[in-house]
Design brief:
alpha/beta, five-stranded parallel beta sheet, 130 residues
């Protein structure tokens, strides 16, 4: 078993999945991708996931619903939500529900990194909400 953090990306856009997986690997993290939240929930990776990056609008269950299911199942994976359709109400509800962040697509690497650093390296467990 490795100590390298596992970042899971759930997005129905294949180009987003590939780009984020490549970025995570270039940063030294392990990365796995899924097109649907249900596929991640059925995987054996939940307990090993250090951070989840999920699209807000997914086929089937949404990113916020995925986050809520993880919490209710007793597996609260730190979750960063991303979206091409930003909505202040959705953002507020997601952050109130414990998401570590909410980013609008497209976003730059330097917008994503504070969240990753807070989740994967902050030993106090505090999330970043720039």
């Amino acid at each position: 078993m490795t100590d390298t953090p596992l970042v899971v990306i759930v997005d129905d856009d294949v180009s987003v999945r590939h780009a984020l997986r490549a970025l995570m690997r270039s940063l030294g993290y392990r990365a796995e991708t899924f097109a649907r939240g249900e596929d991640f929930l059925q995987s054996q990776l939940i307990a090993r996931t250090s951070c989840l990056i999920a699209d807000v609008q997914l086929p089937g269950i949404t990113g916020p619903e995925l986050h809520a299911r993880l919490i209710s199942s007793g597996a609260p994976v730190p979750t960063l939500l991303i979206t091409a359709y930003p909505d202040d109400g959705v953002r507020a509800r997601a952050l109130a529900a414990g998401a570590v962040g909410y980013l609008s697509k497209p976003f730059a690497e330097d917008q994503l990194l504070p969240y990753l650093h807070a989740v994967l390296h902050d030993k106090n467990g505090a999330g970043a909400r720039p």
